[in-house]
Amino acid sequence: MFQNVREVELSQGMVALVDPDDYEYLISFSWCAANNRNDRFVAMRTDRNGEKQRSILMHRAIIGEENISKGEVIDHMNGNPLDNRRENLRICKRGLNIKNCKKYKNNKTGFMGVFYYKRLGKWTASIQSDGERYHLGTFDNPEEAAIAYDEAALRLHGEFATLNFTNEPRFS
Length: 172
Description:
CATH topology of the largest domain: Homing Intron 3 (I-Ppo) Encoded Endonuclease, Chain A
Mean pLDDT: 88
Distance between the termini: 16 Å
Strand content: 25-35%
Order of helices and strands: EEHEEEHEEHEEEH
Helix content: 10-25%
Largest sheet: 3 strands, antiparallel
Strand order of the largest sheet: 3-4-5
Low-confidence stretches: none
CATH class of the largest domain: Alpha Beta
Oligomer: single chain
CATH architecture of the largest domain: Alpha-Beta Complex
Shape: elongated
């Protein structure tokens, strides 16, 4: 799968991928797989200090809290929240991170931003960026609508775009 990568065991039989340089430090803690949203899992541990406890996310431990400013988050570029290799992590503003959201588990079309418009008997595409929703048109089939979505995502979201059609492997 990946070269020069180590696996940190988590709960529920899952593993997190990390760089060899981070591995020894990370295995000194007990990590678990926690469901964050949309049936996606992240690696986290609990730190207890007396009566207080806090959750620590593995990707934040790797980057270092001191390197993350207020309003910033860590994005997993390939969309896999258990791939915590440094080359897959980037610090960004929350608004940019939202732009590369994956399709929801209740998606019925199989494509991001594509919906069937029953009244017209057509497929429609739309995208949201910076609080604005853009209607991209109506189409005869879902593939045409998905292509329109991809073009708009690249234009509006740039390197943070999540595409329907890509040659790069994405975590889904």
